[in-house]
Amino acid sequence: MTYFICENLSCPVSYIDMKYTINTEEIGSCACDVLVVGVWKTDSININVPALSSTLNSAIKVELKRRSFTGKDGEMSMMPVLGEGKIKHVLFAGMGEKKKFQDTHLRSMAARIVKQVNSIKAKNIVLDQTITSAIKKSIEGAQYLVEGFELGSYGFTSFRKQTQKNEEKKKTLTEVAISLKDGKQAKELERGIEIGQIYSSGTILARDLVNTPAMSMHPGEMVKVAESLSGRGTGITCKVRGREEMEKLGMHASIAVAMGSIHEPKFVHLVYKPNNQSRKHGTSNERRATIKKVVLIGKAVTFDAGGLNLKPENGMTDMKIDMAGSASVLGVFKALPDLKPNVEIHGLFIAVENMPGGRAYRPGDVISAMDGTTIEVENTDAEGRITLADALAFASLKIKPDYMIDLATLTGAVIIALGSEITGMLGTSPDIKKALNVASKQSGEHVWELPMHAHYRELIKSKIADVRNVGGRPAGVITAAQFLEKFIHDIPWVHLDIAGPSYAEKEFKPETPIGGTGWGVRMLLNYLRDLK
Ligand code: BES
Ligand code: ZN
Ligand code: ZN
């Protein structure tokens, strides 16, 4: 049954086609809506924009002083250029202290710029050379700039009426020219631009999926999205199993979670294989043996009402976000065909809706996961770990990867522990944790490790089953991870509890507008590209 008609739901529409060019012309000779001038922090403003006359430059100096502009990081000041010139506005963008500047700063800077220029409906802008000459590594610098433009201008418009969509589109920047003194850096910048676009499109898909209401992003819709990412030329295959096939596999635990909903559970298995058919470097069997196999697992509870342990009103409102882990896995898969990392990657999720219908599973029920482990359900609201149990068991027993990582909006406790900007990281593999720490510093997505304190394993012991699904309020993030650990069968594994940063209630960074954030897509892409 369709309740709400929205075109293109399985292939959401927030992606903006922004064009990037490298500009080696003298800035004075280009026409643009906004010239963006980077300014290092300084005590006395002495800016000279070569593209403008000396009279205008003197006026600008006075005005910037009046506005107390100092060029500190994040500061922005827009000025109209009155008269007939080719440049209509100048935006002064503070870059902070030169010695503290890092390429990653470009992400937030570009996001701030895009908001400023969109607010005056600018269509095209030119970035001056102060900005490009600050870049330390050309590829990464260009990548972060592009991520800032793309992610900072994100808006979720699928559910606005057409006239409003058109209005929002009018505000959108479509052309960014990056100035260069000479063309030497151009090739690297171009590659960086391309990577930035790939990373952003994956992140934006994840944001769209999280932002789509649960009525329109139920398990069947999640399946359509996964299928749309596979097929000829992508390197990706997608296998979907329904309730009957899940039953044959022994996934009774996930099936139980879905029983209170009108939506049947769906088990989705995506596989990306690198195209290594060329015989240049040894036989394909030799190469395959050295290629790592990684499984990414996402929590995919399309709505978490809590089940019979119904959530209170304010706890339920945003629970369409409870599939954010799987949205990020889908975001990664969107990027893979263009990025082509040399790793075999499996993406798994079990999509369910956790509702309190007449057939719902009950507190006190005992259910068994795919590996035969029995689970006593103490609270039907701790449902994510139950579905992950089946997915982790499938990954470790059937796929047997080198590494596995799960992403899940698993506990409210992680928000109490780490707030809304940091993901809790736990697991058994120091190698994965180390690599994710590096990857997350580059992507600007923060992780913090919490301990798998041995004694706390006592808290999830059950009187009648192999394990129970809650361990009490204290150390709730840790006992949730220790529940998952029961299903990993010695495969090196890391769990990421993304309940905090998967959704932004307010804009805590300019590149992360309110709503779904697509947390982890860019970090995982970094991780996968660097995997040896
Ligand atoms: N989906 C929630 C966790 C959550 C809370 C995600 C807030 C995002 C924001 C999860 O299924 C849940 O309900 N967890 C319970 C576990 C408890 C019953 C042991 C929780 O955190 O309260
Ligand atoms: Zn829950
Ligand atoms: Zn949940």
Structural notes for this entry:
With 532 residues, the protein is of the alpha/beta class. It folds into two domains: 19-198, Leucine Aminopeptidase, subunit E, domain 1 (3-Layer(aba) Sandwich), CATH 3.40.220.10; 213-530, Zn peptidases (Aminopeptidase), CATH 3.40.630. Helix content is 36%, strand content 20%. The protein contains 17 helices and 19 strands. The chain has helices at 54-66, 105-119, 129-134, 138-152, 162-170, 186-211, 219-228, 243-249, 252-258, 284-290, 313-316, 324-339, 384-399, 413-418, 430-443, 476-485, 521-530; strands at residues 19-23, 32-39, 76-80, 87-94, 124-127, 175-179, 236-241, 266-272, 293-304, 344-354, 366-368, 374-376, 403-408, 422-427, 446-449, 467-468, 493-497, 503-504, 515-516. The strands form four sheets. An eight-stranded mixed beta sheet has the order 7-8-10-9-13-17-14-15, sandwiched between helices. It has a six-stranded mixed beta sheet with strand order 1-6-5-2-4-3. Helix 15 (430-443) links the parallel strand 14 (422-427) and strand 15 (446-449). Helix 4 (138-152) runs parallel beside helix 6 and helix 6 packs antiparallel against helix 12 (324-339). The longest helix is centred in the middle third of the chain and has 26 residues, at 186-211. The model is unreliable at 1-7 (pLDDT under 50). Bound molecules: ligand BES and zinc ion (2 copies). The site of one zinc ion has 4 residues, from loops. One zinc ion is lined by residues 301, 304, 322, 383-384.
